Amino acid sequence: MGRTFTESGRRAQIVRAAIEVVAELGYAKASFSRIAKQAGLSSTGMISYHFAGKDDLMHEVVAEVTRVTGAFMAPRIEAAEGARARLRAFIESNVELLALWPGHLKALIEVLPNLGGDDPATVGYQASMHLLMEQQEQAVRAAQEAGEFREFDARLMLVALRGAIDAVVMRWVGDQDFDVAGAGRELADIFDRATRAEP
């Protein structure tokens, strides 16, 4: 039996509050009482009604962050014409998330390590990242065959790109005044020069 509109709305309210609390206080201090207060609930009972426990709630936090980031990035990447433009859109939209959804990304950084490597949410997130890497590798090879990208090890380039984006994220975590938009543009320029076919 599906959830009612009211139940779905309440769950979403609790997840939003959980994201805000985890982002501000960290995973360890994100108690049900703090989350209930953030959500404007009179007690923790409503959280316990909707979620089996903290891990269950944190699974939904991971799912919500994944939904939000995908919904933001996908249209921008799909609207770009050509492999070089899609690469730029991927990098810039990925980094732009830091400015638009700072709490979501902070929460994700906090939650995943605390759930543990064998937790279903962690395994699922890693599986989705692995699938994304495979899809990107295929797209890079297709762009190489079409002459848009030069010859290079596609997997190695994508690993380097992922590492560069993660480094920008960690720099931003430690410095909230960091110019993320500028970093996104500069990173896109770097990888455009690194991948494009010679004129």
**Mean pLDDT, nearest integer?**
90
Alpha-carbon distance between the two ends: 59 Å
Assign a percent range to the helix content. Answer: over 70%
Shape: elongated
CATH homologous superfamily descriptor of the largest domain: Tetracycline Repressor, domain 2
In brief, what are we looking at here?
The chain folds into two domains: 1-51, Homeodomain-like (Arc Repressor Mutant, subunit A), CATH 1.10.10.60; 54-195, Orthogonal Bundle (Tetracycline Repressor, domain 2). Helices cover 78% and strands 0% of the residues.
Which short descriptors sum up this protein?
199 residues, mainly alpha, Arc Repressor Mutant, subunit A, Tetracycline Repressor, domain 2, 78% helix, elongated
3D architecture notes:
- 78% of the residues lie in helices and 0% in strands.
- The N and C termini lie far apart (59 Å).
- The chain has 2 domains: 1-51, Homeodomain-like (Arc Repressor Mutant, subunit A); 54-195, Tetracycline Repressor, domain 2 (Orthogonal Bundle), CATH 1.10.357.
- It is mainly α and 199 residues long.
- Helix 4 crosses helix 5 (83-100), helix 4 packs across helix 6 and helix 8 runs antiparallel to helix 9 (180-195).
- The chain has helices at 5-25, 32-39, 45-50, 54-79, 83-100, 102-115, 120-145, 154-174, 180-195.
